[in-house]
Specification:
This is Transposase. The protein is an alpha/beta fold. Helix content is 33%, strand content 14%. It is globular, with a radius of gyration of 22 Å.
Length: 282
């Protein structure tokens, strides 16, 4: 589903911009009005508290990365190193969102996530990815640490969130929704399984924006509606400890009470619904 959403996202961006470039200076509000602009940002969820870290400060990592890892000594004691999840966000206002789970904020970890985007597509970010200027002529950033011109009255500048139409509020709004909905729904998710939850969110958002028919095609939807007494086998090979988690996250995205006339969700031993059968290959 995610590759299909990316394809539609690329089509919209190419259609809107057609290789045009942003002005090098000045207010961009009129130039980008009504056009899709990609906003990017990073979020740490389920971060490790100082209590979880044995009340020891973390010196090895800085910034958001420090909040998802334990120190080496505590990690050896607990047998695990990563506690939280670092989420990279690509979002368009009123459009789709692509979420990825990343180990850190280094260029080698983040840059490949932009590869599917058209060349020199307008991209707004904060000061976290300054290297993007070398690869994208339409990259613009906002300085969240901007200081006020009148230092006697204010410390921070009023332009540190938005200036000349450049901001990251679209990505930040999505991240706020992710943070609170994930806390309310799951309480905690393991970092190794985080991509399943993030893909679920991206897929449901993409379906809401583009519609299932546009993403998978009208003919495929008709085949699914006219299954009759058959069923759709969903094969997956996954370790036993995340099998139930995978089923909950992935299959519930496509579960529809109208299909079976029941809100009961099937498992590997259920045959109440003629449209779904879960087949484990592990």
């Amino acid at each position: 589903m995610i590759p299909l959403i990316k394809d539609e996202m690329v089509k919209d961006l190419k259609k809107a911009w057609k290789g045009r470039k942003l002005p090098e200076s000045g207010d961009l509000k009129a130039f980008i009005k009504g056009k899709p602009v990609v906003h990017t940002d990073t979020l740490a969820i389920f971060s490790a508290s100082q209590r979880a870290n044995g009340y020891r400060k973390r010196f090895k990592h800085k910034g958001q990365t420090a909040s998802i890892y334990l120190t080496d000594s505590v990690a050896e004691e607990k047998g695990k190193y990563q506690i939280g999840t670092l989420v990279h966000t690509l979002a368009i206002k009123g459009g789709p969102v692509i979420l990825s789970s990343i180990p850190d904020q280094k260029q080698k970890s983040i840059q490949p996530l932009f590869d599917f985007l058209p060349e020199d597509v307008p991209l707004f970010a904060d000061e976290g990815i300054p290297w993007m200027e070398r690869y994208n002529k339409n990259f613009r950033s906002i300085n969240h640490s901007a200081r006020a011109k009148d230092g006697k009255r204010n410390v921070w500048g009023k332009n540190r969130w938005s200036e000349n139409g450049i901001h990251t509020q679209v990505a930040e709004g999505i991240q706020r929704s992710i943070k609170y909905s994930f806390l309310a729904s799951y309480s905690y998710i393991r970092p190794e399984n985080s991509i399943l939850y993030l893909n679920e969110y991206s897929a449901l958002k993409g379906i809401r924006v583009y519609g299932l028919e546009r993403l998978v095609g009208k003919k495929k939807i008709e085949k699914l509606r006219n299954v009759g007494k058959g069923y759709l086998e969903i094969h997956f090979s996954i370790s036993h400890n995340v099998k139930s988690e995978f089923r909950s996250v992935f299959l519930r995205s496509f579960w529809n009470e109208d299909f079976c006339g029941s809100s009961h969700f099937p498992d590997e031993n259920d045959h109440d619904c003629p449209y779904f059968r879960i087949v484990s290959l592990s």
